UniProtKB/TrEMBL annotation:
Coiled coil: none annotated. The chain crosses the membrane at residues 34-56, 76-93, 126-144, 151-170, 182-200, 212-232, 238-255, 264-289, 301-321. It holds the Pfam family Acyl_transf_3. Keywords: Acyltransferase, Membrane, Transferase, Transmembrane, Transmembrane helix. One of its GO terms (cellular component) is membrane. PANTHER family: ACETYLTRANSFERASE, BLR2367 PROTEIN. GO terms for biological process: polysaccharide biosynthetic process. This is Acyltransferase. One of its GO terms (molecular function) is acyltransferase activity, transferring groups other than amino-acyl groups.
Length: 340
């Protein structure tokens, strides 16, 4: 695994955590994080990383549709289902603690299947996993073509987005609306990951160009933080946030050989999936505890507790739950006899 990608995964996860912590803090009139407005673009970076990693995965080990999808389910689903069961338990005990800000009813069926029906999931930010698995399905469908698989995947996703632009859905701002889901411009970011794979594996950027590209991406994101307010689920968002994240990715990953190992960032990157899933529980838990203690108005303490608490919980979840289950399931799969 690329060190640079682990660092970018850490960045993406922390950006999302800060965004959600900021939203929660503003409810209690704490605006310490209000000036940080680009946290949601961590999701854009995650999608680009996913496109790259899937290309890397199939090029290192050619797989069938079934084996590829099985590996994806084994890697993604167990931890998600465990935490969804936790969320379901909380929802059954106190529904107000789950999706309290949503006007739509929570969908238990969609929460476990990741099949969108227009309603939020028990783990609200798990909508991104629906897009991940849709990308996996399209990506795996073309595995029969060794030479053109990435090209066919990219063309298919681009065509779907074009269809959505030509025939826009009635409610384009809702990412899980069935008519919006398979044509959402966010699919372009998986294509960006595929393009990034071609650029990086073919060493198309020199060290100097990679540094300049990375700095340009950072400059654009800083500018966006203060001057951009485009709606998060429009094509404009993909242009304004997706493109600089693409530039950041190809620039930074092209510098892989120059990047030292920083264990804290590495571990944060390794645990980024667990952090992404578990942090809503921690943010809510910290809020409840600090509210009961009467210290929630201590803004710095509240914000730090949400962010640091999420990072620690994500790491523990990764070490104690995600990885042991992943090793167990992979060992079971290896023991299964091969089928003709």
């Amino acid at each position: 695994m690329y060190l640079s990608i682990q660092y970018l995964r850490a960045l993406a996860a922390i950006m999302v955590v800060i965004a959600h912590s900021s939203h929660k803090a503003t409810i209690y009139n704490i605006d310490l994080l209000s000036s940080f407005k680009i946290g949601g673009s961590g999701v854009d970076l995650f999608f680009i990383i996913s496109g790259f990693i899937m290309c890397l995965t199939v090029d290192r080990n050619r797989q069938s549709f079934t084996s590829f999808m099985k590996a994806r389910v084994v890697r993604i689903a167990p931890l998600y289902w465990i935490l969804t069961c936790v969320a379901l338990t909380i929802y059954l005990i106190n529904p107000d603690l789950v999706n309290s800000s949503s006007t739509r009813p929570t969908s238990i069926f969609s929460s476990f299947t990741l099949i969108p029906n227009g309603n939020p999931y028990l783990i609200n930010n798990a909508w991104t996993l629906s897009y991940e698995f849709f990308f996996y399905l399209v990506f795996a469908f073309f595995l029969f073509s060794k030479n053109n698989q990435k090209l066919f995947t990219s063309i298919t996703l681009i065509i779907l987005v074009i269809i959505g632009l030509v025939f826009p859905p009635v409610d384009p701002k809702w990412v899980l609306k069935p008519t919006t889901f398979i044509t959402n411009p966010v699919l372009i970011e998986f294509v960006m990951g595929i393009v990034a794979y071609k650029i990086i594996t073919n060493k198309m950027l020199s060290t100097k160009t990679a540094i300049i590209t990375t700095l340009i991406a950072i400059a654009i994101m800083i500018t966006n933080n203060f001057y951009s307010s485009l709606w998060i689920h429009t094509l404009g968002h993909i242009i304004v946030y997706g493109i600089p994240m693409f530039l950041l990715f190809i620039g930074f990953v092209s510098l892989e050989s120059k990047i030292p190992k920083i264990n804290l960032l590495y571990q944060l990157g390794m645990s980024s999936y667990a952090l992404y899933l578990v942090h809503p529980f921690i943010i809510t838990g910290v809020t409840i505890v600090m509210r009961k203690l009467g210290i929630i108005n201590i803004g710095p303490l509240y914000v730090i507790a949400m962010i640091i608490g999420s990072a620690i919980a994500g790491f523990l979840c990764y070490k104690l739950i995600e990885m042991p289950i992943d090793r167990f399931l992979k060992a079971k799969i290896k023991k299964q006899p091969a089928t003709a």
